[in-house]
Specification:
This protein has 7 helices and 21 strands. By secondary structure, it is of the alpha+beta class. Strands 1, 2, 11, 12, 13, 14, 20 and 21 form an 8-stranded mixed beta sheet that branches. It has an 8-stranded mixed beta sheet with strand order 8-9-7-16-17-18-15-19. Strands 3-10-6 form a 3-stranded antiparallel beta sheet, with helices on one face. Helix 1 crosses helix 7 and helix 3 crosses helix 7. The radius of gyration is 21 Å and the shape is globular.
Amino acid sequence: MEVDFLLIGQGLAGTVLSYRLIKAGFKVHLIDKDEEGTSSKVAAGLYNPITGRRMVKTWQADVLFPEIEPFYKEMESFLGKRFFFPVGIYRPFLSFEEQNEWLAKSADDRFEEYVGKIYTAPRYPELHDGYGGLLLKKSGYLDIYSLMKHYQSWLKKEKLITLGTESECGLTQKSGCWAFNGGRAKALVFANGLGAGKNRYFNWLPFAPVKGEILTVKQPFETNEIINRGIFRINLSNGTARVGSTYDRIDLTLDPTEKAKNELLEKLDELMNAGSVSVIDHQVGIRPATVDRRPFLGKHPEFENVYLFGGFGAKGVSLAPYYSREMVKLLTLNEEPQKEVNIIRFFKYI
């Protein structure tokens, strides 16, 4: 078996990039450990154009967001499954000043395409939104786990994936190519999140992992919108919802903590009063964030045909479609990505 690209990792990054390469006509194979606790398998998958406590437009929103819906809908069509959910996000205002600020911004061309409606009075009796709120559009969530599961099934059917570690698959470099389980690849692409920062090629890059914990709760409140202020709340089905997320840079174990659970429940109580809440699941993942909160794309400066695609942190759903396109340009046309995401910005760390 001869392939153009061997990708290590079938998380969100490996899924999106390999799909782009296959659709472009290149031969691809993936190696994946298929382990639990990866951020892709746990993440809620939100994409949100207005983020943070100060409610600012997310970095590169005008470039990233036009790619999101067309790309994931194409993957839905390709796999014949639904996992992409365009849904409005409702963000309660915290003050009259914030309300007035967004009334002004709603008429600003820079924000117009992301603002669905401004509410100047409470929208839901269950919410603590006395000042109204901002309803965003071009937002929603991706069921990342479902996407990865169905895509992996297709890869298995096409014999394009091997489950196991690189060593278990016999990965070695021979005569300028990469040998694995009887196959050969012209180039090697690490798309395995934090695992890329532990190998000999990219262990010099400043990953900054972040632990995140998410709850699935049962609560008598349903809405077609995502509620997001301090935490997010996504309605699922049968009266359940996902609530998250925490950010912990110290404790990087995969153990759920009472501290995180209590923090999320307290913030949920601050956000709304919708009756009793019971926790039915508690999940943990480690996000592959970076020290400057920008992705890692690029070619190794010394090893021939060794590349990296990752470091997407908590915003992988919005970052991956656009930057996978840029990565394909690097892999196939040798066109370097912009410096803000290119690993050349850290060459001095080697």
